[in-house]
Each structure stands twice: as structure tokens, then as C-alpha cells.
Amino acid sequence: MDELGQEIVQAEARVVRDCPLAMETPLPLTHHPAAVYLSQLAPRSRRTMRQALNCLAGILTQGRCDAFTLDWSKLRYPQTVALRSVLMEKYSPATANRMLCALRRTLKEAKRLKLMPWEEYADAVDLPNIRGKTLPKGRMLEESEIIALFRVCLEENSPGGKRDAAMIGILMGGLRRAEVVAVSLEDLNLKTRGLMVRQGKGNEDRMTYLPEGALRAVWDWLQVRGEAPGALLCPVQRYGKVEIRYMNDQVVMNVLQKRAAQAGVPPFTPHDFRRTFISNLLNTTDLLTVQQLVGHADPATTAKYNLRGEAVKQDAVGRLHVPYPETTKHYYQFEEND
């Protein structure tokens, strides 16, 4: 039984009394709206949206229900519109809209399972997205910081150091941390620098490519890892023994925190490598190509990762030619002491 099924079984063992929105009779896995919705998602997205549904259920019941004990089919427009107001107050627009998406999708499954009348469903999900814009999260890593991270890995002169350098190199290719630990040796093409990312966000495969320096880091790691099929990045046990098996994506965070502390690099997240990759690529190629490389469904999502700042926009406009005659010296051309 998978993790989702285990949660349903645990929910069936819990009885939430004196709560109007609580589920009165446990539903089987195939007829539970939240379970059916979550089962359609990739594992990483499933965790995110399960947390969103747990949060929504907690708000609706003052913490008494979660995603699997709330009866989603009982929700009506007064509850969902009030829920939207709470989300608008408590969360950023992006987070609130992600939670509203989880709500709509779960109610859609309740309607499909004939648990919710069509008219009530249509009213309950008739909620506009929350508008607003926040400053981009995260930051770009400076080249000097990346050099420092590679240096502390290589100065260790150990299999673990080479593994960590390869991990940083693959992150420099724009992969999400869950994608990094899911890559197998068979997904790497050394001749083309191609890297097949399988079952990324949205359960979609894509082909991306590693920068030359990143490929060198991976090559050095392969001299230690060997040619055995399986996970590209593996645990390194005591005395440098490499164990060919896949790792949890939390390992990526742990490695980066350790190496950042050793290198004296200010705090950053694994996703900041992705932001750096996208921002740097946008200096050299078009938005559509970058979108395809990083696996975004919408180019607008890719554009949100652009952290290059105003100087890039200023320089871009400065390259445009307007054929106005240069007959006089204009105010902005005068020296400050003129």
C-alpha cells in the first residue's frame, strides 16, 4: 500500500464528532474526492497539494479535520467564498491561488463521483483567482560563490566531495532537487551533454543539457562511482564506499547547507540554482527555449524566475536605434561640472 493509501486507512480510524463538515462514513480510496485528485499527481506535487488540502480543511473546521476526514462534497459557495477571503488575508497570491486550485480540483472529483450536485459544484468553484504580485523569491548565485562551493568539495579530495561537486553541477543545469536525485546513469549522454529528466513536475519527461563545466564535474564523479546502472548520484558510505541506490531529495538540501557553511557562502536554497540557470540563459536565448529546458508549462512561470534586475532592461533599450539627428548636445550628455 502506498503512502496515500496508508493515510486513508489512518483517516478511517479517526472519527471527528460534532463537526458538520466532517465525513460521517469513511469512503473507499476510489471514491474519496481528495484521494482521487491526489492520485493523479506526481509524488512531489502530491505532497504539496496534500498539505494545501490539509490546510484548507483545518481552516474550515478550526483544525478538527484534515484532507481525508473532511467531507468535501458538503462544501457550498458560502464556505468556499469565505475560504477565499481567509486565504487572501493569510497568504501570498501565488500560494493562495495554488490552494484554490487544489480546492477546485477536489470538488471537481466530488462532482465526477456523483457526491456533489452539478449546480452546487458550479457555484462553489466560481471563485476568481487572487490578483497581486510579489517580489521574486530567492536569489541568483554569484560566480564567485559557485567557485567557492566547487573548491570546498574538491579540496576534500574524497568520493563524497566529488559526488557533491557533481550534484552542484547538475543543479547548475536547472533541475529541481527532486529531479536531481531521480536521475539515473542511463539518462546521461556524455556526447551530447544531454540529460533526460523523467517524470518531472506534472509527470512529464523532458530533455535538458548540462553546461560544459557541469559535465566535467559529473565526469570526475563517474570515475569514482563506476559504470553500474542505477542512480547517478548515490550515497557515499564510510571509507568512501559508493552504494548504488537513489537518495531522498532532502539530501540535496543537507549537502548544500554543509558546503555553503564550509565555503562561507550566504544562505541559499537548491531552487536558487534553478533561478540562476534561468536568469543566465535569458541573457543568451529566447524565453520559449528556456521554458522547454526547465519544464515549465507556461512561459509566464519561467519569466517569474528572471532575477537579472533593471540593468538588463536598461541595457536592452540602450541598444535600440532611434534615427534622431545628433545636432545638439543634450542635457544628459553634459558633464556634472559643466
TrEMBL record:
One of its GO terms (biological process) is DNA recombination. Residues 134-319 form the Tyr recombinase domain. SUPFAM superfamilies: DNA breaking-rejoining enzymes. InterPro entries: DNA_brk_join_enz, Integrase-like_cat_sf, Integrase_catalytic, Tyrosine_recombinase_XerCD. Keywords: DNA recombination. Pfam families: Phage_integrase. One of its GO terms (molecular function) is DNA binding. This is Tyrosine-type recombinase/integrase.
